[in-house]
Amino acid sequence: MLHSNANRVKEQTAPHINQAIEQKSRDRVQLYSAHAPDLITKRLQRLDAEWDTERTLQTNFATLSLVGIALAATVDKRWALLAIGVPAFMIQHALQGWCPPLAVLRRKGFRTTKEINEERFALKSLRGDFADVRSTNDPKDILDAVRS
């Protein structure tokens, strides 16, 4: 079964793990709601550097594929199975939003891009970044406020 891009990882993650990830985000937003804008800016910088599930999986898939190729070429041809198997999991993840390492990553707290952006936009809203949006209907101004 194919899942929508925005929610496919979340749909393939155990509910209690999703709830824990969401609660941590809520707790961080609550913590920063009482802080000065400069602290929110520092948190936003950390969010910009946070690796999401997709980036982490892509890096792991590529690394394992290269390791499998190198080991097949230098140690034993059977290591080629690793180089072949990893892309199969990559395809499964692309289509279904699930692959074996995903459960481990989610338990470790890795979030989707959407989950990171939810915290980002909540913090930007607290900082007042979208105050001017209420007074305009100009799509350019609205997009500029969201992109900044």
Q: How would you characterize this protein structure?
A:
- This protein has helices spanning 8-11, 15-33, 37-49, 53-74, 80-96, 100-107, 113-127, 139-147.
- The model has no long low-confidence stretch (mean pLDDT 89).
- It has one domain.
- Helices cover 72% and strands 0% of the residues.
- It is elongated, with a radius of gyration of 20 Å.
- The longest helix is centred in the middle third of the chain and has 22 residues, at 53-74.
- With 148 residues, it is mainly alpha-helical.
- The protein has eight helices and no strands.
Keywords:
single chain, 148 residues
Quaternary organization: single chain
Shape: elongated
- Residues in β-strands, percent: under 5%
How many helices? The count is 8
Largest sheet: none
Q: Tell me the number of structural domains.
A: 1
**Proportion in helices:** over 70%
Rg estimate, integer Å = 20 Å
Cα(first) to Cα(last) distance is 37 Å
Tell me the total number of β-strands.
0
Overall pLDDT score = 89
Order of helices and strands: HHHHHHHH
Structural class: mainly alpha
- Which regions have little confidence, pLDDT < 50, spanning 5+ residues? none
